[in-house]
Design goal:
Distance between the termini: 61 Å
Order of helices and strands: EEEEEEH
Strand order of the largest sheet: 3-4-5-6
Number of helices: 1
Largest sheet: 4 strands, antiparallel
Number of strands: 6
Oligomer: single chain
Low-confidence stretches: none
Shape: elongated
Length: about 70
Amino acid sequence: MAKKEKKPKKKKPEKKIYTYYKIEDGKIKRLLPFCDRCGPGYFMADHGDRYSCGHCGLTKYKSALEE
């Protein structure tokens, strides 16, 4: 029996911290919210319809935030 060759896994490029901020009119604006449980420094991931914290698992749905 022939052995299958494993394909090398593709690594995603790591997101840099400067992608979480934007400069407008000389002021810094955060593009993603901080986690309510973990506090400042822990950004929540944007998943389209919700925000999720990778540290504690807190999830906020965007439809609830818009109301």
